[in-house]
Amino acid sequence: TSLHSLLTVSGLTAAYGRVVALRDVSLDVGEGEIVAILGANGAGKTTLLNAISGVLAPQSGTVTFAGGQIAGMKPWAISRLGMSHVPEGREIFPGLSVEANLGLIDFDGGGPKFALEDVVALFPRLGERLHQLAGSLSGGEQQMLAIGRGLMAAPKLVLFDEPSLGLSPMLSKAVLAAIRGLKERGISVLLVEQNMRAALKIADRGYVLRVGRITAEGSARELAESPDIQHAYLGL
Ligand code: ATP
Fold first, then answer.
1. Which atom of ligand 1 is found nearest the CA of 48?
2. Where is the ABC transporter domain (predicted)?
C-alpha cells in the first residue's frame, strides 16, 4: 500500500496439532485503513485474527505492529501496544454491569482516546443500560459492549471477528456504521465478516482467504465486482 503500514503479517503459518489452518499468509493494514478478510466457513479467518492478536501462537512467520515484532507475544502484552481484538464470542463478563465491563481496561494503547461518554455516544443503547448486568443484554447489545470495551483501550488497530453475526439487519447496520466511524477517528480496522456485501461497503481493501491461504486481494470495489470472489466466498 501507499499508506504507512501499521500491521504487516508475513508468511504466517498456524496449526492445531497436525491440522494446518493458515499457510504462509501475508497481508498489511495501513494507518487509517479498513481491511476486510473474506472467506467461507472454515477458511481460517478466526485463526488468522487469533494468530495476529496472540490468542494463538503462530508456527512461523512474522507480525509487525506499530514498528515492533509481536509474533509469539501474549495477548495482554499485544493489547497494551494498541491492538484490540473483539472476538466472535464477544467475551464480556456477564456477572458485571455494563459500566463495570467498560471500566475494566486500565491501560492506554496509544491511539485515539475513548471515554465512557464516547462509547455511549457511539452506542446510545449502552448508555440506557449502564447499570444492567452484561449477561442480561441482548446479543446485539453485547456486541456493542464488546466493541466499546475494545475502544476503551485507546487502540490504534481493532480486529473484529464477524461483528454483525446474529444481529438484525438494523443492528448490523448500526454496528458497521460505528466501525466506519472509527476510521474517521483515525483508528485502523481489520474486519472479518460473513456478510461480504456489508464488509466491502465499509472496507477500503480486502483479502480472500481460502483453506488457509490468501487467494486474492484488491480494492473493495475490485473484490465486489469479481465473479471469482463470489466463488471463493461460497467455497465452490
Ligand atoms: P467460520 O467462518 O466458520 O468461523 P473461519 O474462517 O473463522 O470459519 P477458523 O475457525 O479459523 O475458520 O477454522 C479454520 C480451520 O481450523 C477449520 O478447518 C477448523 O476446523 C480448524 N480449527 C479451528 N479451531 C480449531 C481447534 N481449536 N482445534 C482444531 N482445529 C481447529
1. 11
2. 7-236
- The Å distance, Cα 222 to ligand 1 centre, comes to 27
Block residue for cell numbers 471477528: 161
Query: Nearest to residue 168, comparing CAs of 148, 186, 202, 195?
Result: 195
Amino acid at 130: L
Whole-number Å distance, alpha carbon 194 to ligand 1 midpoint, is 14
Residue 39 near ligand 1, beta carbon < 6 Å: yes
Tens of pLDDT along the chain (236 residues) come to 445 899 999 999 999 999 999 999 999 999 999 999 998 888 999 999 999 999 999 999 999 999 999 999 999 999 999 999 998 867 889 999 999 999 998 899 999 999 999 999 989 999 999 999 999 998 888 989 999 999 999 999 999 999 988 788 888 888 899 999 999 999 999 999 878 888 999 999 999 999 999 999 999 999 998 887 777 776 65
Tell me if 170 CB under 6 Å of ligand 1: no
* Residue 170: other Cβ atoms inside 10 A: 9
DSSP H or E stretch at residue 151: helix 139-152
Which residue has cell 466506519? Answer: 180
State in Å: Cα 197 to ligand 1 middle: 22
* Any atom of ligand 1 within 6 Å of the Cβ of 50: no
Q: Which amino acid is at 203?
A: A
* Residue nearest (by alpha carbon) to ligand 1 atom 30: 16
User: What are the residues whose beta carbons fall under 8 Å from the beta carbon of 54, sequence distance 6 or more?
Assistant: 70, 72, 73, 74, 75, 77, 78
Protein residue closest via CA to atom 19 of ligand 1: 42
